[in-house]
Design a protein that fits this description.
With 261 residues, the protein is mostly helical. It contains 12 helices and no strands. Helices cover 64% and strands 0% of the residues. The longest helix is centred in the middle third of the chain and has 27 residues.
Length: 261
């Protein structure tokens, strides 16, 4: 199956599952990830071959989510199954990659398999790294979008499961703040509040996005400002810290965006 056939095939596949809000969310998420991946590939000047491979990986990266939720009623890999590996298995079961060469199938499956890892494994080829980062960046851009929508619709205060059941109006943790301001990765063990949860996304602005185009899209969509305004409403007594962290995130995005080809 080639790229131009995938949208219709994916829609038909999604419709084979019982109608559920969670399945709807994952279908919509996948469509937006494909759009993000397309924008990134255009901005970064991907070759036509890599664009085809990138589109396939973006369409298939969460293919296993539908079976995951149907069987386990959760999207938490920790209490169910690794959805990235399940997505690879499902793509192979459906034989959607049979029209691709063995080398191209390998690249697509690697991008799917590694999209949910904290860090990529060492020893990957240049094309593997490129496609893996493409899906990871496109996925993160849509995670921004999902939180934006939750903020706009006032969804969060009554749905703590979205942010791991953390205290909603609690202060940001000093270690999380320090890591973000130093441009370091955040240790998830230090996440103690909703503010910390949001700071994870701010930390992506400082080294968590591989492609400069992804950083530019984050700037264009004002993702930092949305989070800055919302956090200042929730924890106004910590507004100075929020402003400082958001400034670090914005400056990092601006520096990275300058590297667009």
């Amino acid at each position: 199956m080639k790229c131009f056939e995938i949208p219709a095939a994916f829609l038909a596949y999604y419709r084979t599952f019982e109608h559920d809000e969670m399945h709807d969310l994952k279908y919509a998420h996948t469509c937006r990830v494909v759009q993000n991946a397309t924008r990134i590939m255009e901005g970064e000047g991907f070759s036509s071959r890599l664009r085809e491979l990138g589109l396939m990986a973006a369409w298939l990266h969460d293919l296993g989510r539908f079976h995951q939720f149907q069987k386990y009623r959760t999207f938490s890999d920790a209490v169910s199954i690794n959805h990235a590996l399940l997505s690879c298995c499902e793509a192979l079961r459906l034989e959607w990659l049979e029209d691709w060469s063995a080398a191209d199938r390998h690249l697509i499956l690697r991008a799917i398999e590694f999209h949910n890892l904290r860090d990529l494994p060492s020893g990957l080829s240049e094309d593997e790294v490129c496609l893996c980062h493409l899906v990871r960046d496109a996925d993160k851009l849509d995670i921004y979008t999902v939180l934006d929508h939750a903020i706009e619709t006032h969804y969060l205060p009554t749905h703590p499961e979205v942010y791991w059941g953390l205290p909603f109006a609690a202060a940001p943790s000093p270690k999380v703040v320090a890591a973000l301001q130093a441009g370091e990765s955040i240790d998830y063990k230090e996440i103690k509040s909703f503010a910390d949860f949001v700071f994870i996304q701010l930390a992506w602005c400082n080294g968590g996005l591989h492609f400069a185009t992804a950083s530019q899209l984050t700037l264009d969509r004002q993702e930092v400002q949305v989070r800055e305004h919302y956090l200042c409403e929730i924890v106004p007594e910590h507004a100075a810290v929020v402003h400082a962290c958001c400034r670090v995130a914005t400056e990092a995005l601006q520096r990275h965006a300058l590297k667009i080809k």
